[in-house]
Amino acid sequence: MEKRKVMVVDDEPDFIKVIKLNLEETGNYEVMTLSTAKDIIPEVHSFKPDVILLDMLMPSTGGLDACEMLNNDSLGKNIPIIIVSALGKDQDRYAAYKKGIIDYLVKPIENKDLITAIEHALENK
Amino acid sequence: MILRKRTMAQKNKTKEELVKEIGLLQKRIVELEISDSARKKAEEVLIFNNIILRTQQELSIDGILVVDEKGKILFFNQRFVNIWGIPLDVIELRSDERVQQSVMDKLASPEEFARKVKHLYETRDEICNDEVVLKDGRVFDRYSVSMFDAEGEYYGRVWYFRDITERKKAEEALRESENRLQSVLSTIQESVTFSNETGYFYVYNLAMEKLTGYSMKEANACPDFISLLYPDPKNRQMALKGIVELLEKRTSREIEIIITTKSGQFRNVSIFSSLISYNGRNLFLSVYRDITERKQAEEVLQEACTELKETQAQLIQAEKMEVIGRLASGVAHEVKNPLGIILQGVNYLEGKISSEEKDMFEIVQMMKNNIKRADNIVCALLEFSRAGELNLKAEDINSILESSLSLVRYKINPPDIEIFKELASDLPKVSIDSNKMEQVFINLLLNAVDAMPRGGKLFMRSYPIQLHDSKNDLGRRNGNYFKLTEKAVVVQIEDTGNGILEENLRKVFDPFFTTKGPKNGVGLGLAVTKNIIDMHKGIIDIESKVGKGTKVSIILRIA
Ligand SMILES: Nc1ncnc2c1ncn2[C@@H]1O[C@H](COP(=O)(O)OP(=O)(O)O)[C@@H](O)[C@H]1O
Ligand SMILES: [Mg+2]
């Protein structure tokens, strides 16, 4: 089975490192990490991810801005986005859902729950 | 012997009686003239009587003058001469006319005096008792009566004069001071009464009449004026207690009380009373002050003050919540991120451990549990801080109770825990944030379930109440939020679980207070609940008995 491509965007270097390890550990995913969403469009065009895990609160370009950028991109708009954030308020959730995300997970999250969400997103792509 | 007895008795006789007696005795002399020995005896009697009479007359404080029908002075005493100041040569003439002439220039109204004397001599059966005023200011009491014998024959007149100047002056002074007192009493603002123990008023001034609406006459005519003034038994008791205390302790006291006026109005009065002993009798001097306006002003002030405090408390609370809210979401973000990393790290290690390495496996589980615990605390803190934002709507409390129950139903093991719903059917709607209230009920239901690990009964109740002052002590505990007699709705969650220790009852609302251990409890459930109820300006109350169960009552205002 071909590996699915997962892009992880988060300003926490430790977080993207451990997520990458855990996802790759399964042998099912090829993971690319970005510590900023600033250049997300060119990166998406070069990596062509099947799913994007996106943080909400990041310096300069936040999660919602990134969604906006992806929605305005011919390639980006078809890629399912899962928000993985420390923010858990309803209003954050609603704001993100309005941008067309497929799921919203609040940190801390168990790896198995993350994988379930990724699989679900891929199925509904 | 017989004579002696008679004369002794004469001592107590009145002037009239004595005069009459003289007449009788004289007549008797004529009768006795028949026999010489008898006459002698009669003379003796007469002499003796005259001596007695004379002594009495000389000792009398009255000036006495006896005039016969021809105007001849039959008798006078020294006092008569003295008070009138009649010269010896004049009185020696034994002429009433001359005596009259000699006093004319001493009289304040001589013509009137002369007229009266003339009139009295002409009108024999007239008894005179009046006052004669002298130029020098003295006043004489005048008493005059004619002398008749048993057959009714006229013998002349007796005059008594008594100097009553001092008495007059005293009377005048008394009357004057009384008038002055009356005029003072009638002009002062304070209501003043002076009464005896039977409630008879000697003084009852104009202000008192105005205050009570009852006149002094009405007050004195009423056999139970106290009941009239204090128809309410509570006030009456207070008034009577005041009187009894006054009599016992005998020190002046002031009471504040409500009187009912004649027109049925209530007035707040302060009564200052003191006890005055007079001739061994207790008299009450009371000063009433109408403090109704002051009381009303005080009440208004009190209300304003309470309102201010309430607003202040709410402001402080709101500000606190805002700070906590900002702090909490900042902390949450900062804590959740590292927790996310740790959890992922632990997940990574988890995958590397073989099932043989039991300790390693256990430690990893322990780490995961504690990450969850920290996360729970952060979430609860966020929840706690977010109670500040309310979205109030008129809601049916029963349906919120139902939906809350359905959300925790999975936790309730039906055969172990029996649920009793006692929900009033036509409850008024309450003004609440349904999401927040759902959270309250979930917290309470979960606590109840936690308290009954071996099963029990869970009651869910709702009913309307009217808050009365004494009947409902729930309404008092947090009186700020509810006006008495306001209508409200009560929700109760009661369990038959293990209950709360007395010493913990005060702490259960404290954030992070839990008796469930770190794995099962965070200790924010009731803190959040209390906060939400406070934001709704409701009341929450917990009653609990160890081993018996716990009852949580919530009072909510109707929409
Ligand atoms: N229905 C109840 N029966 C017995 N104890 C209770 C009940 N509700 C609350 N408590 C006590 O109050 C404490 C605080 O409750 P709460 O604030 O909800 O936190 P937690 O449930 O996380 O412990 C509980 O740990 C328990 O000791
Ligand atoms: Mg609880």
Morphology of chain B:
rod-shaped
Q: How would a crystallographer describe the biggest sheet of chain A?
A: 5 strands, parallel
The name of the CATH topology of the largest domain in chain B is: Heat Shock Protein 90
As laid out across the biggest beta sheet of chain A, the strand order is 2-1-3-4-5
The computed structural class of chain A is: alpha/beta
Quantity of strands of chain B, as a count: 17
Give the N-terminus to C-terminus distance of chain B in angstroms. 110 Å
CATH class category name of chain A: Alpha Beta
Q: Compute the number of structural domains of chain A.
A: 1
How much of the residues of chain B is beta strand, in percent?
15-25%
The 3D shape of chain A can be described as: globular
- Low-pLDDT ranges of chain A: none
Tell me the helix content of chain B.
Answer: 40-55%
* Small ligands present: adenosine-5'-diphosphate, magnesium ion
- According to CATH, the fold-level topology of chain A is Rossmann fold
Mean pLDDT of chain B: 85
**Average pLDDT figure of chain A:** 93
C-alpha Rg of chain B (nearest Å): 51 Å
**What structural class is derived from the secondary structure elements of chain B?**
alpha+beta
Largest β-sheet summary of chain B:
5 strands, antiparallel
Explain the overall architecture.
The complex is a heterodimer of chains A (125) and B (559). By secondary structure, chain A is an alpha/beta fold. Chain A has a single domain, classed as Rossmann fold. Chain A has 5 helices and 5 strands, in the order βαβαβαβαβα. Chain A has a 5-stranded parallel β-sheet with strand order 2-1-3-4-5, sandwiched between helices. The mean pLDDT of chain A is 93. By secondary structure, chain B is α+β, with helices and mostly antiparallel strands. Chain B has 20 helices and 17 strands. In chain B, strand 1 and strand 2 form a beta hairpin. The radius of gyration of chain B is 51 Å and the shape is rod-shaped. The N terminus of chain B is likely disordered. At the A-B interface, helix 1 of A face helix 13 and helix 14 of B. The complex binds adenosine-5'-diphosphate and magnesium ion. Adenosine-5'-diphosphate binds next to helix 16 and helix 20 of chain B. Adenosine-5'-diphosphate (ADP) binds next to helix 16 and helix 20 of chain B.
